[in-house]
Amino acid sequence: MTEFATVDLHVIDQMNETASEDQLPLVVIHGLLGSADNWRSHLKVWQRRRRVIAVDLRNHGRSPHAEGMSYTVMSQDVLKALDNLSIERAHILGHSMGGKVAMTLACMVPERCASLIAADIAPVAYQHGHDDVFAALERVRKGKPTNRRDADALLAEHVASRPTRLFLATNLVRNSDGEMTVRVGLDEIQRGYESIIGKPDGDPPFEGPALVLRGADSRYVSDDMLPALRGVLPKARVVTLKQAGHWLHADQPEAFQQAVEAFITAQ
Fold first, then answer.
1. Which residues are catalytic?
2. Which domain holds residue 202?
3. Predicted TM-score of the model (pTM)
């Protein structure tokens, strides 16, 4: 058990008439400051063959705000969501921070994980790298803009990259006063940041099938991290997507979708 209670996560649960009930579900876990909504275009593709569940992690999307951002407690939140959906076993896909949640889940309860797909993340501790992003969101929170153009101007005071600002803007919603506000649990995320940039929890290794997709233009899964990766995922296959950075699922959506589907189908 952890010192923090689990929360009921918001989930997107999709399957259409062409999907096979014989196929195990795919569970998708977003990265830091992302949400299940970011994955809707991918879900539409994967749901043709199987049930697909995307979760909002605590302090993200439509899920509750709560203290504690350790990988143990976040993976227990996901496990609770699977229990609520009566899903005993599934393929688990996680991007970035969500990849570490997926690794923790696989190591803690390997019997629940048919396979693991980690998107551009390694089981290592990273350096601080989100101060500008947190400052930008804090600027919006204090600036109380009334439209997205003004919100973008406030974000731009700290973040020059327009693609990054567009991503951050997915976390903005209009409140009852007509102001654009931040829907993520920004304070809780910042207090838990040391856990977020740290190593995943659990008792490795996960001996099941694993796929690690990395962007050729990203430094999140460098060659010198591969020994640590093998220590946690000894059976992992590492695939590099060309012309893709850390958000490889956005940079190369079709290649990403196909790689995931081919790997799952082979299991």
1. 96, 187, 246
2. 11-126+198-265
3. 0.96
